[in-house]
Write a structure and sequence with these properties.
Layout: E1 5-7, E2 11-13, H1 15-47, H2 57-75, H3 87-107, H4 113-116, H5 119-141, H6 148-161, H7 165-173, H8 175-178, E3 182-184, E4 187-188, E5 194-196, E6 200-202, E7 211-213, E8 216-220, E9 226-230, H9 233-248, E10 251-253, E11 257-259
Helix pairs in contact: 1-5, 1-9, 2-3, 5-6, 5-7, 5-9, 6-9
Length: 264
Amino acid sequence: MFFVLRYPGTWIEPRDEGWVLQQIISSIQDEIAEATLSLIDFEHEQANCPTFKAPDLAEIQGASSRRQHIEQELFGNTSFDVPRVSSEDWLRRSVAVDEEILRRTLEQGILPKDISSRRVFVAAKSFALAAAAIERLCKVAGHSISAASASDSALRMLADRLPGIKGVRHSLVHVEDRRRGQKGRGKPIDFQPIDMPGFVQAPAGLMIGFSLVNHVLCITQADGTVGQLPIDEDTVATLTGAAQILIDGLMWTGPPSIWPRVSW
């Protein structure tokens, strides 16, 4: 994975706009770094994601024995020792045992699968938000007269190659609306037909939450379509390319440089 930003100079002219633009570009660098790190984490989690394996008889018996041992510690006996235990008492005991198992697991530094299995989604969300931040920063740069043309070119590139970038971000940020089937301000989403072979096909449309199809993040957008954002090196290259278009369209003075800087 190799990405680099090339700066024709050190300072942006005119200086009154240049200071603001350099702050924006510095933030773009930060978001490219975050997208790169998120991609590394995402690929690591995908490569190391455990496959489902049904427990064998020995594992089932071992788990049952441990549960009985903990129940004995908590209540002085087990449900098997209590004649005609009520369903309410059995459920109360079961939940108490579950909580004790969870406490001991966490004390050993082991995360429950309900949490650890979310690592790949955390990396995907971080990547998507970083990508969207770069798009927004390129847009904001266009508020400066000297950067308007370069901003438009960068945004056109992103819209052409990553059309889902804005819709995906909006749905990730406004999850409170999507979970209620709303696009915002209480208005319902007009779901559009979905035709994604191998994932889902729904002629009448369907609410799709934060999902991953291989390396593509999929989520229902405000317009009822399914937004997609690939989480891969090509996307980082596109984001870096858009940033380079913005940089190249500005007036620079001073010695050139590259980012990331070389570490000695």
